[in-house]
Specification:
This is ActR/PrrA/RegA family redox response regulator transcription factor. By secondary structure, this protein is an alpha/beta fold. The protein has 9 helices and 7 strands, in the order H-E-H-E-H-E-E-E-H-E-H-E-H-H-H-H. The longest helix is centred in the last third of the chain and has 15 residues.
Length: about 180
Amino acid sequence: MNDLSMDFVAEPDQTLLIVDDDKPFLQRIARAMETRGFAVEVAESISDGLTRVQARPPAYAVVDMRLGDGNGLDVIGMLREKRPDAKAVILTGYGNIATAVTAVKLGAIDYLSKPADADDIIRALRQDPTDRATPPENPMSADRVRWEHIQRVYELCERNVSETARRLNMHRRTLQRILAKRAPR
């Protein structure tokens, strides 16, 4: 009698959820990840992403930080609850240290700035957690460090401009102008 369980080799779970409200980017990344062997599901909103995680938690997730209906960190948090072994990457066009730290605390394994390509995403999803990043060749400027600090306090104050300005001992309008500008290099 042939034992079928000995002949069967389970393939690793390659389910991937991509949550992003930029439709062209979402479609491009989904196609690229499918050609690399992933079983891709897409969501264009936080609520849709949460529904999909609730129904079938994927092995991998790529989640945009800011979407029209909320924060991608909510999807990461639920994924961590439903499937602790899942690997998730946060994508954002608004990179700052505070949100990167929060993303990692909630279970993201990496934090990539847009535009990221499929190879960057796969590298992040499949990296060895014991690998250490190499020190930067060009460290942040003093202006960038200041901007990062302001962003961190802003996130800690739950994006309340008045509270952030009070804690930084800064005029509210000055803070609003800083927050409206792009990050310095």
